[in-house]
Amino acid sequence: MGKLIYSMIQSLDGYTKAADGTHGWGAPEDEELHGYINELSASVGTFLYGRRMYETMAYWETAHLHPGQPPVVLEWARLWQATEKVVYSRTLAEPSSARTRIEREFDPAAVRRLKDSSEQDLTIDGPELAGQAVKAGLVDEYHLIIAPVLVGGGTRFFPDGAHADLDLVEERGFANGVVVLRYSARR
């Protein structure tokens, strides 16, 4: 059985995107951090995305074609390309990447079955989609990648009304000021 992991880069004040829509402050440009994220993602067999997050992440389908990419970036592109992707969208006509299927509605029971039948972990990415999984009690681990910036408002990592009892699994700091906190949900 695979674990469902909610993992995103966020500001210190808990936002995945600032009120003006920017989120570039959260890119893991540090090679040590990027390598660590690659390690965390090695157990993942399926990414669950909302449309907007998928459109952002689809860059990785061709990232290896851009000259001068460091090895850690090329490794992430290889991992991303090899992983199954499920995109929840009512409007996306077709995927722009291989190993990708579109689902029109987020169905918690279907995600539960996917977790139960998976030999690898799954991630759910994007705060709106992940919020549905959090509220349905589907998330097994939370990976908070906290950037040393305050943005003052925007799209929050956790949805209103979220509740879960958590155990700290790991905490790790990086030279660029980013801190990663990994929690498992108590069942």
In words, what does this structure look like?
The chain is 26% helix and 31% strand. It has 187 residues and is of the alpha/beta class. The protein has an eight-stranded mixed beta sheet, with helices on both faces. The mean pLDDT is 94. The radius of gyration is 16 Å and the shape is globular.
Question: CATH superfamily assignment?
Answer: Dihydrofolate Reductase, subunit A
Write down the overall mean pLDDT: 94
Count every helix, treating DSSP H or I runs of 4 or more residues as helices.
5
In the CATH scheme, the class would be: Alpha Beta
Classify the helix fraction into a percent range.
Answer: 25-40%
Instruction: Compute the number of structural domains.
Output: 1
Fraction in beta strands: 25-35%
- Name the structural class: alpha/beta
Shape: globular
Characteristic key phrases:
single chain; 187 residues; alpha/beta; Dihydrofolate Reductase, subunit A; two-stranded antiparallel sheet; 31% strand; globular; RibDG_C
Q: Brief description of this entry?
A:
With 187 residues, the chain is α/β, with parallel strands linked by helices. The chain has helices at residues 31-41, 51-57, 71-82, 108-117, 127-135; strands at residues 4-11, 15-18, 44-50, 84-88, 100-103, 121-125, 141-147, 154-156, 166-173, 179-185. The protein contains 5 helices and 10 strands, in the order E-E-H-E-H-H-E-E-H-E-H-E-E-E-E.
Helix and strand layout, with pairings?
Layout: E1 4-11, E2 15-18, H1 31-41, E3 44-50, H2 51-57, H3 71-82, E4 84-88, E5 100-103, H4 108-117, E6 121-125, H5 127-135, E7 141-147, E8 154-156, E9 166-173, E10 179-185
Parallel strand pairs: 1-6, 1-7, 3-4, 3-6, 4-5
Antiparallel strand pairs: 2-8, 7-10, 9-10
Helix pairs in contact: 1-3
